Amino acid sequence: MSIYSEHQLKHKSRFVNKIWALDNSQQKTEIQNLKILPNGCFNFAFLIGKGAKVYLKDTQFHYNQGIYLCSQLTEYINLTLSGNSKLILVQLKPWYFSYFQQSNFQNFVDTISEYSPHYKLFGVDINLDSSSILEDIIALTEHYFSEFEKSNVKQNTIELICRKIIIHHGNCKISGILKDYPYSERWIQSRFKKATGLTLKQFSKIIQFRSSVDEIAFNEKKDSLTSVGYKSGYNDQSHFINNFYQFSKITPSKFNPENYVLSFRE
To answer: Which SUPFAM superfamilies match (predicted)?
Structure first.
């Protein structure tokens, strides 16, 4: 997808996956059907230009130029980016907000909310009309998280659990992971949902789903879907198909990577 680009910070951040952009600023016509799948992350979104429409759970939302916080998703969204518009997103690791004691995302899921009506990020003014807006966002994100990581050297419980689930591509027993921590399962589950908006089971299933998406999208060995399912940790095809459909509203056999906004392969 030619309008898609990815940008990495100079240092490997514990809290930022990447900065990515959808750039339709040079075209007068809108681009429709930009499908974005759940991936277990939050995003700060900078919408520049005439705006965008988002279709989520059979409802259409319209967004004007501004800065937004995008919650965790539990199913795909369909984006229409207006002509002469650009969308820049800072993709945050799922545990970022767990480092803020007052954050509560229990009821914040499948939602896009205005984050800063005064165009500020990390307390700094942002000029969305700047010709160097992408470079400005990258530089600000780099500076903020370099300092943030110095102040939060020790990984907390939520980060450690997320990392274990991701390392296992979501193919793990939650009870087996939680036994390694000196807290009750109820306490951890509550803290996890407060920090991410998802239950541990939901998060694990999303990570497993995205693992299967990558296996299909970057299937260099031309493995069968049966093989892809087993590689992604599904014990049977029905489990694979049902989980895939839950998040994409399509079966694996009908999934075409070219119809989705997907990351470049690392």
So the answer is: Homeodomain-like (SSF46689)
pLDDT of residue 221: 66
**What phi, psi does 46 have (nearest 5°)?**
-115, 110
- Taking only the tens place, the pLDDT of each residue in 183-233 is 999 999 999 999 999 999 999 999 999 999 999 998 776 878 999 998 898
Structural domains of the chain ordered from first start = 4-151 (2.60.120.10), 168-259 (1.10.10.60)
Task: Give the full edge-to-edge strand order of the sheet including 77-81.
Answer: 31-36, 77-81, 52-56, 59-63
Please give the C-alpha separations between residue 181 and each of 82, 157, 184, 205, 221, in angstroms, as whole numbers.
Answer: 48, 8, 8, 21, 39
What is the rounded distance in angstroms from the CA atom of residue 170 to the CA atom of residue 172?
6
Q: Does residue 69 contact residue 44 with C-beta atoms inside 8 Å?
A: yes
> What residue has token string 């969305």?
128
Integer-rounded Cα radius of gyration of the chain: 19
CB 240 within 8 A of CB 205: no
Name beta bridge partners: 35. 78, 260
Torsion sign (Cα): 212, 264, 30, 84: positive
- List of residues 6+ apart from 78 with CB closer than 8 A: 33, 34, 35, 54, 55, 56
Q: Among all chains, which residue has been given the structure tokens 């399509």?
A: 250
Q: Is the pTM of this model over 0.85?
A: yes
